[in-house]
Every structure is written in C-alpha cells, then in structure tokens.
Amino acid sequence: MSTPAAAAGPAPGGTSTTEPLVAYLLGLGDDALVLAQRLGEWITRAPQIEEDVALANIALDLLGQARVLLTRAGELEGAGRDEDALAFGRDERDFRNVCLVEIPNGDFAVTTARQLVFSAYQCELWSALRDSADPVLSGLAGKAVKEAAYHRDHATHWVLRLGDGTDEGHRRMQAGLDRVWPYVDELFAADDVAAHLAGVAVDPPSLRAPWSAYVEDVVARATLTVPSPTWHARGGRRGLHTEHLGHLLPEMQHLHRAHPGARW
Amino acid sequence: MSATTPRAPGVPEVSRATGTPRTPHGWPLWEVFVRSRRGLSHQHVGSLHAPDGAMALRNARDVYTRRGEGVSLWVVPSSQVLATTPDEQDPFFDPAMDKAYRHPTFYEVPEGVEHL
After folding, report:
1. CATH tag, B29-102
2. In this complex, do A48 and B58 lie within 8 Å of one another by their Cβ atoms?
3. Which residue stretches belong to region Disordered (chain B) (predicted)?
4. Does residue B61 contact residue A147 with C-beta atoms inside 8 Å?
5. Best mutation site among A39, A48, A50 for testing chain B: the one with the most B CBs within 10 Å?
6. What domains can be seen in chain A, in order of their start residue?
7. pLDDT tens across A171-187, in order?
8. CA-to-CA distance for A135 and A133, rounded, in angstroms?
C-alpha cells in the first residue's frame, strides 16, 4: 500500500505505539460516527424544522470528526482500509464506540440528555487533545473543540428550557437524564489503550472532574436531579455493545455493502 | 396588535429555578439579520421560529450562517416589527418617484470606492 500516513507524519514514538493509537482513534472515531448516525435519524422528525436543521448540523460536525479519525486509523493500521472500509465494512464486534452513543434516540429529551453528556465530554476531550503529540489528533482537536462547544451550548439551552419549563417537559427531561446516566461511567473509564499513549491520548478519568462541574451546574439550574444509576454500561471499547448497535449498523452500512464503492 | 405572544399551554408563569417572571413562551416568529462581514450593515435574511431570543440566535446560526455567511447575527421578534401595508403604498412611496434630483446620479463615482 502507498503510505499516505507519511504525509501526515509517522506515529509518534514509532511502531510500539501504533497499535494502541489505531485502537484509540477507532474508539473516538466510532463514537462520532455512531452518534452522527443516531442524530441523523431525527431528520424530518424533529419538533420544529429549525431543530431539524440544528440536529443535522451537529450530526455533520460529528461525521466530519469521524472521517478524520477513521482515515488516520486506517493509514496507521497499514492494511489498506480507508474511512469507508472502516465505517461500512466492519461488523458490530469490531466497533469501539461507547454504548452511550448507540442507544436509541427516545423522545427529544432523551436525545437532549445524551447530547449534554456527550458534548460536555467532547469539550473536555478535544480541549485536552489540542496538546497531543499526534499531529492529526491535535489538528483535529483545534477545530473540533469549537464544534463541541456549540453542541454543548445547544444541549444546555434545551435542558434548561425543558427542565425549568412545563411540568411535562420537566418530567420528560428528568426521565431523559435517568435513561442516559448509566452510560456516563464508560466515558471516563480507565483503559489500557490510553495508558500506552502518554502524550498522545488523554487519560479518560482525568476528564471527569471538569465534566461533572459543568453538567451538574446545568442540571441544577434546570431544577433537575443528577441521577444515581444502579448499574453502569461497560465494554463498548472492547466491542461488547448493547443490542441497539446491531440494528443501527445494517441501516448505516446497507448502501455501501450492496453497492461497494458507490459514489454520488 | 398585541405586543406579547401567547404563552404556550401549561408553561408556568414564573421560572421554577429563579422565580422570575417568564418572557412569553411558545414558539413565536423571529426576524433574522446577518452581517456578512465587518464594515457592512446587518441585512434581513429571513425568519424562523424559536421559543425565546437565545434559542432564536442559535437557530439563526444553524439556518442562516452554516456556510460561513456571517460574522454577526441579530434576531428581532417579528411581533415588534411595524410595517407599512399595501394600502399605504401610494401615500408612502409615490411622492418620491418624480424627484430625480434626490438621486445621487449627478456625481462621478471615484474609482475603487466600494459599497456605494
């Protein structure tokens, strides 16, 4: 295979970190890809056409992040897989996303709760990755941190309005938080991959404190309660997913698999 | 014309969090103005629905500036815009038609001057 990776710079630290870095990039890339697909399901179904456009915009930001991450992962892997091969050619057990992004959209409040959790996490993640030793990661982070800040702002405003709005909105927003909170822990779980990539990746537990400070403030201002889940999702980074990813992937991958190499 | 927009059914009169009275809820219409770059004035580009001003700005960002059209946004409640009616066309605009001397067409425009 030709080496487009060389143009973007070799893996920092040489080959010993290549494998963990590929896994790390796949994890972040799959998070963005799967959530983009989920948010895309809102198109034509959002409460207002303005919200339709907003959610589609956010989905496209995430899709852009996923493209950079998967392309970089494919180059470093050196097995000739490009972004399309990775996005559309892998099966469920090969996806490395956290379970949070694959759960169904639910009502608008569930989607909003998930957006608050994930975008606040991404804000801290991209902010930290701006200093990554990997030139592609740090370059992407500089752009993505602005996108995540907007996604977080959008979710924040909705949580405040629904939580501190009608009784119906308040009830649904609390139910939305309760639905997604079991999936929070997995975002910040320590993992071996990041441990091998000092200076390149971010240690997930280190992101939790600033995340909590932001999210808990929003939840309190929305007159809602931070849930205390009795169980916690695990396993997404190892390819162990909820049943929902298995339903999402065929829809996302159908066109590419039915018509390999199809173009607009 | 009422200056306020009806509150959506069930929205409390005051914020649960702060006790402050609410601005009218529901999804009123907002007029959107975009300044495409520094030095130009804001131009009206369209309208949209939003529950309040803060959300209207965000919706305007998504609907009207996602292709890099602007550096500044205004939103104004449509209910606050006072407009002429078609009936008033003649008294308002007709008297201007025959006064050619009001048009700055009797000057040479210096070369290289933009935005005239």
Report:
1. 3.10.20.520
2. no
3. 1-24
4. no
5. A50
6. 15-258 (1.20.1260.10)
7. 999 999 999 999 999 99
8. 6
